Please model this.
Amino acid sequence: MAPNLGSSPRVVVRVVQLVGLLASVLAGESWAQSNAGPSTADRDFGTDEIPRIEIALADPADDVTVWGNLRLVVALVAPASSGDIGFTDVCVIVPPRLAMVARRGDKVLDRCAILEATSLDGAIKRKDFEPIEFEPARLNEKRFLDLVSLLSHQSRSEIVTVSATYFPLARKEEQSSIESHLRVRVDSHPLSMFVGALFGSLLAASLLVSVRVAGGAGTNSGSLCDAFRGVAGRCFRGAVVAIIVILLAKTTAELRMPVSIDVHDFYGGVLLGLFGDAVAMAIRRWINNPETDTSQARTQQEQGTTADQGSRSEDAAASQTAR
Model:
């Protein structure tokens, strides 16, 4: 069957019209861009005369933690060829989830640290501010859910932003804005590891006691009281062991030990707390009856050897019977 080509010229015409329309739109946009005037910053200063903001940690060796302290240095820099420039609304913004605030006396600054207005004129082309200090927010300034989020924080990068408004001193009504960003690695709060250890030991103790109660061991009030005392005891032992392990891990971090444990956050503390009570009971048995544990291990080894010899004898007898 021959193809129907009756509508082919109409389709070709439609395609040509669409291509022509697209070409005209693109040509109009390029003409508008080529004939458009410069932006506000370009009109005021030129492309190579826009000032910039420099931001860095006051001490690059400092470890930054959530709900901790943060010290920053900020500088305004103007190109050598630029004219006299004024700056206002210089603002340093730290993400709210880090629970850090800037203060002036007893007053908490709203959402950012505001620096004083300044100008760069004549031969002065750089302005260095005093180090900006952020401190942990107070407990009465945070909600319970905020504290949970802070303690469960995991190490990640955060962005600190500095913004400013600048203008030519001769034409203050012509204002523009600039921004600068600093990427900071923010670790978890040291307290989160110990809270995690306590929570993990509580989970492990509750699980063991709940299994005991579900098995019928706790059917009266006396047994339930013993169960709750058991939870408290197991939780305390597990938490103590986990805290000791965390402290040893932190104090020996610089040493190259054959075996090392590295705990960074809340979840690492939970993992240690889950097995803390079992480790504590094993240490207790070893301290109270070291000889008994050694004899039991020797007896188990001898029983295993005897079982292996018996299985070999049975295999030999079975082979002889088969022959």
